[in-house]
Amino acid sequence: MKILHTGDWHLGKKLHETDFEEDHKFFFNSLYNIIIEENIEVLVVAGDIFDFSNPPKSAEKLYYEFLIRLKETSCKNIIITAGNHDGIQSIEAPKEILKLLNVEVIGSISEHPDNDLIEIKNDNGDLKFVVAAVPFLRDRDLLKINSGKTYSDRMTEVSQGIINHYKSIAEAVDNKYGKEVPALATGHLFASGVEENSDAVRDIQIGNLAGIAASSLPERFGYIALGHIHRQQRLKGHPNTWYCGSPLPLSFTERNYEHSILVTSLNEEGIFEQPEKISIPTYRKLITINDDLISVIDKLNELDTEENKNNLVEVIITQEKSDLDIPHKMSSISEELKHIKLVKYRTNFTGVSELRKEEIPDLDQFSPKLIFESLIKSQNIEEDQIPIIKDLFNKTEEILNQEDQQ
């Protein structure tokens, strides 16, 4: 029995006002073809189906159309769990209707772990394995109400809460089915030791400081299908725990990732095989140009060919001195481009200017919040990330103030 593991689709995603709808259509066609060619029987989607908790109608349309297409394929078991980007209400609202398409949706954990166990049977109705469907575990599911806790206490409680939930659901599998029935678990979390530098991955569980070690996950699960980290990788410390990675580049930091899905098999001995990685072609490329202004303009003109149609470009102008004409020149070249699209540019001036002492601001005149907001403005941060970062700063400041008062 073949199981396809994917996730981090981020339907509805925009990159600097550029819509990714065509990218996702292209991906769904590729995914559909893989399901047909590989004779996939189980599809596991490990969170972040959508990019927003209230996705646009166009994104929902793509989602439902794809699930409907799968009804006539060999894939008769579809398990979808929510990620930190997904809204619980929006993803769970149609769950009863989706069951008619053999789709099980888990948006949040149940009061009793038994309710989050999904049986996978063959065409004869024989039980083959059980899926412990674990969505993104939100802080409110893991933290007990106690205003007197320190920041460190909260970190420990979140990490331990994640570990305890996996232990509880592993025990639920044993209690209900015994120790011989194979089990697969899902998850959408940050684990320590991962490789990731993507701008598109939002910090979860209080800034990712509550990351857990893979070795703390129960070995009862023969395969753990994870989402959240956009670079496909296996976690050290557990025999068969994998991040599937995102199937398409969602930020310029992901432009060199190898985007793929994972296919594992349950063999006759009831063991989940190490997964096969199947690369996913992408609709377009994301390209970064880092050079001085004159060279940047030359390279943009060289790239602007039919062969590079629809590719997105970011520019980093790196040179010693500032040039007041940069905004005008970049605006002009952007309008002239016919095939590629310049979506952002920033400058990096390497020359060191000597400031007179009276020009250096006195930091004592500024509050931590003003300094932090000034820092945000100086960094290359995605627009949709700024409110999240500010909210995290405010929560951190509030916690630190509480500790100072104790």
From TrEMBL:
<dbReference type="GO" id="GO:0006310">
    <property type="term" value="P:DNA recombination"/>
</dbReference>
<keyword id="KW-0233">DNA recombination</keyword>
<keyword id="KW-0269">Exonuclease</keyword>
<dbReference type="InterPro" id="IPR041796">
    <property type="entry name" value="Mre11_N"/>
</dbReference>
<keyword id="KW-0378">Hydrolase</keyword>
<keyword id="KW-0235">DNA replication</keyword>
<protein>
    <recommendedName>
        <fullName>Nuclease SbcCD subunit D</fullName>
    </recommendedName>
</protein>
<dbReference type="Pfam" id="PF12320">
    <property type="entry name" value="SbcD_C"/>
</dbReference>
<dbReference type="GO" id="GO:0008408">
    <property type="term" value="F:3'-5' exonuclease activity"/>
</dbReference>
<dbReference type="InterPro" id="IPR004843">
    <property type="entry name" value="Calcineurin-like_PHP"/>
</dbReference>
<dbReference type="GO" id="GO:0006260">
    <property type="term" value="P:DNA replication"/>
</dbReference>
<dbReference type="InterPro" id="IPR050535">
    <property type="entry name" value="DNA_Repair-Maintenance_Comp"/>
</dbReference>
<dbReference type="InterPro" id="IPR004593">
    <property type="entry name" value="SbcD"/>
</dbReference>
<comment type="subunit">
    <text>Heterodimer of SbcC and SbcD.</text>
</comment>
<dbReference type="InterPro" id="IPR026843">
    <property type="entry name" value="SbcD_C"/>
</dbReference>
<feature type="domain" description="Nuclease SbcCD subunit D C-terminal">
    <location>
        <begin position="283"/>
        <end position="379"/>
    </location>
</feature>
<keyword id="KW-0255">Endonuclease</keyword>
<dbReference type="Pfam" id="PF00149">
    <property type="entry name" value="Metallophos"/>
</dbReference>
<comment type="function">
    <text>SbcCD cleaves DNA hairpin structures. These structures can inhibit DNA replication and are intermediates in certain DNA recombination reactions. The complex acts as a 3'-&gt;5' double strand exonuclease that can open hairpins. It also has a 5' single-strand endonuclease activity.</text>
</comment>
<dbReference type="InterPro" id="IPR029052">
    <property type="entry name" value="Metallo-depent_PP-like"/>
</dbReference>
<feature type="domain" description="Calcineurin-like phosphoesterase">
    <location>
        <begin position="1"/>
        <end position="126"/>
    </location>
</feature>
<dbReference type="GO" id="GO:0004519">
    <property type="term" value="F:endonuclease activity"/>
</dbReference>
<keyword id="KW-0540">Nuclease</keyword>
<comment type="similarity">
    <text>Belongs to the SbcD family.</text>
</comment>
